[in-house]
Input
Amino acid sequence: MVYGTKIVVYLATNNESRFKRLYPNPSHKYSMRFYEFSTKPLTPEQSRINGLKQRKDSAATALAAERTRQKRAKARERVQKAQQALAKTNIPSV
Output
């Protein structure tokens, strides 16, 4: 759960076109402005939904990883069987 306020400070510089539009004179008393954005704490319902979404995403990631692991294991077994069969045939090298 997220409690409290997250503060992001944005500093407008002389190089920004938006800043130049708002304050064409760099020596203006508002030549540097701070903008503050804050977030409200999540409600219990929102927090539960976010938790469910995160668990869904982590389950999907785990499922994909397990499928990949099983595919690699099967491929490794096929390669080993092919190598063993090749070794049994004793094909003379040229």
About this structure: Residues 6-10 have pLDDT under 50 and may be disordered.
